[in-house]
Amino acid sequence: MDYAEVVDSLENKTVKRCIEYGIGEGIAAGWLVKHGEPYLLEKLEIVKQAKQKGEIKTTEAQYLAAAVNNDYKDGQVAIQIQNRAKRKEARLLREAEVEASEKVSREQRERRKEAREAVITYLKSLDEFDAQQLETQFIKETNLNPDEAESFHDWIAEKPGVIEYRMALN
Q1: What is the pTM of this model?
Q2: Which structural domain, as residue segments, surrounds residue 148?
Q3: Tally of domains in the chain
Q4: Both 12 and 64 in a single domain?
Q5: Which of 15, 22, 28, 126 could pair with 131 as two cysteines, CB 3.0-4.6 Å apart?
Q6: pLDDT by residue, tens only, the chain of 170 residues
């Protein structure tokens, strides 16, 4: 049966049943041409059974389209739906984990930024001699150059005097 024959023959009961479930004539006729009447009848029966059992959580048209496109088998529909639900749940869980991780990263960056700002304020509050002593101590302990501001700020931020100073700012 070709597409023209199906479109010309809207008397086809299978196409009419698809239309009753909310599928457009063209789509129903296309399914009939592509899959054949026995296949489509099987999917219509699956939808009918699922409807009777209250298993359809979407529209009947969406359920029928899923049955046709995903080749639901009688007796496997519930399993396929459960598997789809499990995959969706796993995807949502992964998305939530990523979102939580990104939130933690944002919070850590914000705390680090605040700590750096406190360190800069602390350094500006020091006289030249105390600032020079801090740089010398940093070089001795880390073998790094104080011009590497990020390392220097992180190192200073962990010093006891700076921690109290940061807490006083908050």
Answers
A1: 0.43
A2: 107-169
A3: 2
A4: yes
A5: 126
A6: 555 564 555 567 888 999 999 999 889 988 988 988 888 988 998 899 888 888 888 899 999 999 999 888 876 655 666 677 688 889 999 999 999 999 999 998 888 788 777 777 777 788 888 878 877 887 777 776 666 656 776 776 666 665 555 555 55
